[in-house]
């Protein structure tokens, strides 16, 4: 059971990680994208992340409140911007600023405790970048679209790289667990069956 859960978790992390890195590269390569297009794409990203976080909240009992709040904020932020992309960077900046800060805090409180070593370092760095991007969006809500797009792109790349790295490590863990389970089955003592006359 545990190896199957680890395999599914690894696949989810890898998919979201690759999507996030590609999204970040697109934003960094094309920082001149319009504010409305940015709002729609980032709103879609917030919606997907909000749904994934809510699913995690109902699968995991640890820090369920943080995950629910982060997921709901992601859904609200995504819906506000996608329904009315003309709200401009000021409203989008404030909305996403609060969401990014909350997302960073939730990531530190939920994930950092469960990881160790280099996984923890990447997770904490990603969370700090979420928080910094959130503060910048709130303090400078009317910052130029190019700067805002670039910051979000770098954030998405770092977060995606962290997810890919964690997904690969989780896949290795799943393989080790599967191998250990197979070895236990092979090494299990076989009961002596009495000979029949």
Question: What would you say this structure looks like, in words?
Answer:
This protein is mostly helical and 197 residues long. The chain is 82% helix and 0% strand. The chain is built from 6 helices and no strands. The chain has helices at residues 2-29, 35-59, 64-83, 88-110, 117-139, 145-187. Helix 4 (88-110) runs antiparallel to helix 5 (117-139). The radius of gyration is 21 Å and the shape is elongated. The two termini are 41 Å apart. The mean pLDDT is 76.
Rounded to an integer, what's the Rg over CA atoms? 21 Å
Derived from helix and strand composition plus strand pairing, the structural class reads mainly alpha
How would the global form be characterised? elongated
User: How many beta-strand segments?
Assistant: 0
| Poorly predicted segments | none
- Tally of helical segments: 6
Largest beta-sheet characterization: none
Percentage of residues in DSSP E strands: under 5%
The average pLDDT is 76
Topology pattern, helix = H, strand = E? HHHHHH
* Terminal-residue CA separation: 41 Å
């Amino acid at each position: 059971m545990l190896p199957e859960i680890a395999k599914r978790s690894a696949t989810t992390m890898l998919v979201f990680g690759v999507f996030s890195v590609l999204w970040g590269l697109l934003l960094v390569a094309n920082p001149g994208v319009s504010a409305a297009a940015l709002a729609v794409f980032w709103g879609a990203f917030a919606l997907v992340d909000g749904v994934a976080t809510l699913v995690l909240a109902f699968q995991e009992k640890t820090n369920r409140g943080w995950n629910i709040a982060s997921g709901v904020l992601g859904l609200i932020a995504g819906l506000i911007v996608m329904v009315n992309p003309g709200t401009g960077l000021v409203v989008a900046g404030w909305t996403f600023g609060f969401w990014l800060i909350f997302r960073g805090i939730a990531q530190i409180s939920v994930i950092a405790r469960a990881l160790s070593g280099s996984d923890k370092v990447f997770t904490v760095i990603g969370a700090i970048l979420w928080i910094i991007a959130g503060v910048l969006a709130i303090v400078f809500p009317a910052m130029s679209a190019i700067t805002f797009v670039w910051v979000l792109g770098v954030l998405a790349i770092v977060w995606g790289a962290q997810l890919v790295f964690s997904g690969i490590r989780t896949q290795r863990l799943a393989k080790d667990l599967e191998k250990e389970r197979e070895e236990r089955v092979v090494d299990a003592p076989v009961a002596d069956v009495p000979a029949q006359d």
